[in-house]
Amino acid sequence: MRYVLLYLKGMLMGAADLVPGVSGGTIALITGIYKELLESINAVSWTSLKSFKSEGIKGVWKKINGAFLLALFGGILSSVLIFSRVLEWLLINEPIGLWSFFFGLLVASILFLIQTELRFNLSGLVFLVLGAVLSYLITQMTSVSNEVPLWYLFLAGFIGISAMILPGLSGAYILFVMGVYQTIVSNVRQAQDLLVNFSQEQFVQISSILGVFILGILVGIKVFAKFLSWLLIRYPERSLAVLIGLMLGALNKVWPWQNQLPKSSEEAPEMTVAVFPQHFEGGSPEMGKALILMFFGFVLFFALERSKVLFKK
């Protein structure tokens, strides 16, 4: 049952990472697997692999917590492949409902973590504010480039995965800021289409783009996971305060009602600003649907929190 739930949490992480504004790291933190995730990633090293001769496959598999990583990343990968089209459709056709659900989930997790993890002293509050300000400033950044050379895709993968494992910082949004989000989503969709209509020319092109991007992800996740683990061991209270702050600062980007700001030029990227429902200019604010889905996201968090009992050995 533990690994089935891990797989489902991985699917939720994958779905969150697909949405600009939501972080898979947030899901990992609120479902109680964040520290184990970082420790397991750090355990995958050349030293661990070299012990294959003395300890065999079983020993190495246990050392790197292989069952945990397989279940979790299997869920993430399944979610990306299954939900990339669904979430793309929801972002276009049901944005208020989608953002309402994630907003409710995020608010519940922030309230819970403030109550259980935050120390209400000067240091804790200062680092909470620092994390919130940093996260808010990042959500105000705009796309900087439409050209996507391979070296830039590697850099985007490296930075994007670093944000994806940070609660509150959306890796998908970072990819959007860097101008590669649509490129990656489009190539994932085209890779799926190749299974039905194979084209060697397309295969080479898609493989080079996704291959370089994935290489950046693999390098980034190792480097950043080690850094985060060091912080959580050395400065646990301050690190958790910053992580909660990062989630708090991202709330404005997940707010369901966003109005588009006027463009300064045709080439300028689209910018939005959070507004109250009565000032929403994108049609009906769909208050009933939004409140129901916010409540559902809020309740789902506590259901996931209760499921932690099943994880105890």
Secondary-structure blueprint:
Blueprint lengths: L1 H17 L5 H7 L3 H10 L2 H5 L1 H12 L2 H28 L1 H22 L5 H18 L10 H15 L6 H7 L3 H14 L5 H35 L1 H14 L1 H4 L3 E3 L11 E3 L12 H20 L7
Antiparallel strand pairs: 1-2
Question: Can I get a quick summary?
Answer:
The chain has 313 residues and is mainly alpha-helical. The protein contains 15 helices and two strands.
Describe this structure in words.
- The protein contains 15 helices and 2 strands.
- It has 313 residues and is mostly helical.
- The chain has one domain.
- The C terminus is likely disordered.
What brief labels describe this structure?
313 residues; mainly alpha; disordered C terminus
Summed up, the domain count is 1
Strands, total number = 2
* C-alpha-based Rg, rounded: 20 Å
Unreliable residue runs: 309-313
Order of helices and strands: HHHHHHHHHHHHHHEEH
Task: Give the percentage of residues in beta strands.
Answer: under 5%
Mean pLDDT metric: 79
Instruction: Specify the overall morphology.
Output: globular
The helix/strand class is mainly alpha
User: In order across it, which strands form the biggest sheet?
Assistant: 1-2
Helix content: over 70%
Question: Please, how many helices?
Answer: 15
User: How can the largest sheet be summarized?
Assistant: 2 strands, antiparallel
Spatial gap, N to C terminus: 12 Å
